[in-house]
Write a structure and sequence with these properties.
The complex is a heterodimer. By secondary structure, chain A is an alpha/beta fold. Chain A has two domains: about 15-150 and about 425-470, 3-Layer(aba) Sandwich (Rossmann fold); about 210-410, no CATH class. Chain A has 20 helices and seven strands. Chain A has a four-stranded parallel sheet with strand order 1-4-3-2, with helices on both faces. The longest helix of chain A has about 40 residues, at about 195-230. Chain A is elongated. Chain A starts with 14 loop residues before the first helix and ends with a helix. By secondary structure, chain B is of the alpha+beta class. Chain B has two domains: about 30-60 and about 300-335; about 65-295, no CATH class. Chain B contains nine helices and ten strands. Chain B has helices at about 1-10, 30-60, 115-120, 125, 130-135, 160, 190-195, 235-245, 305-335, and strands spanning about 60-65, 85-95, 100, 100-110, 165-175, 175-180, 250-260, 265, 270-275, 290-295. A four-stranded antiparallel sheet of chain B has the order 1-10-4-7, with helices on one face. Chain B has a four-stranded antiparallel sheet with strand order 2-9-5-6, with no helix packed on it. In chain B, strands 3-8 form a two-stranded antiparallel sheet. In chain B, β5 (about 165-175) and β6 (about 175-180) form a beta hairpin. Chain B is extended. Classes of the chains: A alpha/beta, B alpha+beta. At the A-B interface, α12, α14 and α16 of A face α2, α3, α7, β7 and α9 of B.
Chain lengths: ~475, ~325
């Protein structure tokens, strides 16, 4: 023996922690790799496979029958354990891992077996597919997309990952292996550990912002439009608008767009788990219904409070219609102030800027130069009764919401209040039997090397497995 | 290798607080120590304002006289079916001094001035004195644009055509003698309507020669007030008051003020007679007509609702804060146990 060479393909920094965190967030992680025997060691070194998993299944059959039989037996094994309450294969008690090699995968992806394969694979906490070709990577992703109502994300760094990156979200890692993956992807960054921030921070914020934005948008338009509905009862249903024409035009564009944008761009959440996004908790039919109901309640307040107050004429004769628009926008803006959960300097600027712009525009439009077009609103805003009515309507809209939220916090605390992150789960585990490096290492190869034969091992390297099938592995 | 680094630094996004979403921010957290005192404060403030409003409103005096004449015993009953000029008079008494300045309103119920087509039926250009629109009024006014002989109507439209034309006079019975209470009709319309929105062409009847008065008017527009040129034509105050559409079907419009001579301080207690030239028919749509006498304060006319609403909302805030305190205390103790 003159010497030995070893090639070290180190895992990036932070990969095990990232994977541990993502699996805590209820995200299933599959590894699809072209590597052979290193795949299992990689699985252990990045904490996908752990020592205390209940069982690790291997599917390595070469023929259709053997693959089918192996799949069947694994499934039986899984289902023989007491299932969880939901009865769904995904939440079976006990942790399993599945390792399947490329040639078995080719059989398992056939039409008649794919459903079985998917259900078995999804019952496992971790799935490693090794020796997969780029085409098979894409096929696996397609399979999941087809059979499961889940969002898929594919992350890779090499040219062989490009076909896989057509998952719902494709992430490319720009690194040593060139930039083909980056070019084909939706997001790209340089290190795998950034995935954690992408998903758990930006992804969560993005979902939250979308939901709040949508809710708020529907709310403000309902509040705005339903006032006309109530007014219809009092104007002979003649479709007379309550607000001034220009107000209607400017409402969505100028007066209320910026606070919404600010919310959509800057909103953040301090403590919440990832589950709301996965379970579609923040914007579903019930939430939508709640936000519509709030809009209707606001519109009732915005119409009937001024109606009741102004039924009796004020000092100037008649009831200027312009009053309604003052109330509507001021109250709606007041509500934005409460609903905006997270204030930055831009939020301040946008909210107060919108209110300010409303008053500026109104005074400008109602000034004497543009006078012939618009009736005068200067009269109305100079009267204390008007401001008192605005304050009353605002309070009646805002105060119940505040009280309700406060009571909800106490009576039905969210997950974030009750979950205490235990350090044991997230911290790095104590050393495992497997080393941090991915060696193609098993007993008995020393002889092969010393015997001088030129060989390539074409499958996984689990110690017990090798001892059973050593002969068939050697090409 | 150097090139790669340079490329990297040009692709690298800015590390500012804005782009990295690290803006300093404030998140209102609804903690008990903030919410409960805040509710108490709001509640107390609202109750305070409500009480002030209510007391002020209580001091405002209001007197309403319905003169539709639906009841057969009513003095104006005879005028209901009369198509010609009819005058009726009603007596009423004021128990205590009605503090001045007193405002005299006429009120209509079930009258939808806020109906869309009705309210849009006018020609603003005509009312601004633009002579082109005298000969050719806008089609917004249909069917009140031209009369049966196809002559243009000035002012055109349903809104102008339906102008309220009852007139009133008030007299005070003093020692058996009827003393007329002077009514002041100046400045009852919006300043901007009077000075800017409505303008007369030179009140030369030449300009009005090719035009006709609205169908239901007794006199043409340039004869509304022949004694005062500043109250004639389109800038007639009663006309302007009428054209300023009311928002709700039960409304009041200012008719006159009582501010002159002996009555500048108000209407003393006693008996009064209201004489009405009953011209305006309302019974076909079940409408009612009334006269309202009122004085005002800093918060406008009598408005009990505002005071009561403030008190109600204020007390509900206080009740809510107590409820929240109980809930919070219960949960806190439950947690601690």
């Amino acid at each position: 023996l003159l010497g030995a060479t070893a090639i070290e393909d180190k895992l990036q920094e932070g990969v095990p922690e990232t994977i541990a965190l993502l699996s805590l967030a209820n995200i299933k992680i599959w590894v699809l790799t072209g590597d052979k025997q290193t795949a299992v060691n990689i699985g252990y070194s990045c904490k996908m496979l752990t020592d205390d998993m209940t069982e690790v299944f291997i599917i390595g059959g070469h023929t259709v029958q053997s693959v089918r039989q192996e799949l069947g037996s694994k499934q039986l094994h899984c289902s023989s354990l007491p299932p969880s309450a939901s009865g769904d294969m995904d939440s079976i008690s006990g942790e399993f891992a599945l390792i399947i090699s490329g040639h078995s995968l080719a059989h398992a992806l056939e039409a008649d077996m794919e459903a079985e394969f998917v259900s078995t694979a999804c019952a496992c906490k971790a799935v490693i597919c090794c020796r997969v070709t780029p085409l098979q990577k894409a096929q696996v992703v397609e399979l999941i997309k087809k059979h499961k109502k889940a969002v898929t994300l594919a992350i890779g760094d090499g040219a062989n990952d490009v076909s896989m990156i057509k998952a719902h979200i494709g992430v490319g890692i720009s690194g040593q292996e060139g930039i083909q993956a980056v070019l084909a992807s939706d997001y790209s960054f340089a290190q795998f550990r950034f995935l954690q921030r992408l998903l758990l921070v930006h992804g969560r914020w993005s979902y939250l912002r979308m939901c709040r934005f949508l809710c708020y948008f529907f709310y403000k338009n309902f509040a705005f439009t339903m006032v006309h509905f109530w007014f219809g009862f009092f104007c002979g249903f003649s479709a007379q608008t309550v607000y001034d024409q220009f107000f209607i035009t400017l409402y969505n564009i100028v007066y209320t767009s910026l606070p919404v944008l600010a919310m959509g761009v800057f909103d953040q959440v301090i403590t919440e788990l990832y589950e709301p996004g996965q379970l579609n908790l923040l914007f579903n039919k019930k939430e939508f219904f709640i936000c519509i109901t709030q809009g209707i309640y606001t519109s009732v307040v915005l119409f009937f409070v001024p109606y009741a107050v102004l039924s009796d004429a004020t000092q100037s004769n008649g009831v200027p219609l312009a009053d309604y628009q003052t109330f509507a926008v001021t109250t709606a803006t007041a509500l934005v102030i409460v609903v905006t959960g997270f204030w930055t300097v831009f939020n301040h600027m946008f909210v107060w800027g919108s209110v300010g712009s409303y008053f500026t525009i109104m005074f400008a439009l109602h000034s004497q130069t543009l006078f012939r077009i618009f009736p005068n609103a200067q009269n109305t805003l100079l009267q204390p009764v008007v401001w008192l009515t605005i304050a009353l309507a605002t309070a009646v809209c805002v105060v119940p919401v505040l009280a309700f939220r406060f009571l909800k916090l106490d009576l039905k605390p969210q997950l974030s209040d009750t979950v205490s992150v235990s350090e044991g789960r997230l911290g790095a585990r104590g050393g495992s039997r497997r080393s941090g490096y991915a060696f193609s290492h098993q007993e008995g190869f020393g002889e092969l090397i010393t015997s001088g034969k030129n060989m390539r091992l074409s499958s996984l390297a689990l110690a017990n497995f090798a001892s059973k099938h050593s002969s068939s592995w050697i090409e | 290798m150097v090139k790669e680094e340079q490329e990297e630094s040009s692709n690298r996004p800015d590390n500012t607080a804005f782009t990295q979403q690290r803006l300093p921010a404030w998140q209102p957290i609804l903690s008990a120590s903030i919410v409960i005192p805040m509710f108490l404060l709001i509640g107390a403030a609202f109750i305070g304002v409500g009480v002030a409003l209510f007391i002020t409103s209580r001091d405002i005096q209001l007197q309403e006289l319905d003169y539709t004449g639906d009841d057969s015993e009513h003095p104006c009953f005879k005028c209901r079916t009369n198509t010609e000029k009819c005058t009726c008079s009603m007596t009423f008494s004021i128990p205590t001094l009605f503090k001045g300045p007193v405002f005299f309103y006429y009120g209509l119920t079930n009258y939808f001035q806020n109906q869309r087509k009705y309210g849009a039926s006018k020609d603003d250009n005509q009312l601004y004195g633009d002579l082109d629109y005298f000969t050719n009024p806008s089609t917004d006014c249909d069917p009140y644009t031209r009369d049966s002989k196809n002559m243009p109507i000035v002012p055109c439209g349903a809104l102008a055509n339906s102008m309220f034309n009852d007139s009133f006079s008030l007299s005070h019975t003093v020692n058996g003698v009827q003393k007329i209470v002077p009514l002041d009709g100046k400045g009852i319309a919006w300043w901007t309507d009077y000075n800017i929105k409505y303008r007369n062409p030179t009140l030369n009847s030449v300009f009005f020669s090719g035009t006709k008065k609205p169908t239901n008017w007794p006199k043409p527009i340039y004869e509304l007030d022949t004694t005062d040129v500043y109250n004639n034509g389109f800038i007639n105050q009663d006309f302007l008051v009428w054209m300023r559409r009311a928002a709700l079907p039960d409304f009041r419009k200012l008719y006159r003020r009582i501010t002159h001579d002996d009555y500048a301080d108000g209407l003393p207690a006693g008996n009064y007679t209201l004489t009405i030239a009953y011209n305006y028919p309302v019974h076909s749509f079940n409408g009612k007509k009334k006269v309202v006498l009122s004085n005002v304060s800093w918060m406008g006319g009598k408005n009990d609702f505002l005071g009561i609403a403030y008190i109600v909302v204020g007390s509900m805030c206080v009740v809510m804060s107590v409820v929240m305190l109980i809930v919070y205390a219960r949960f806190k103790f439950a947690e601690d146990v």
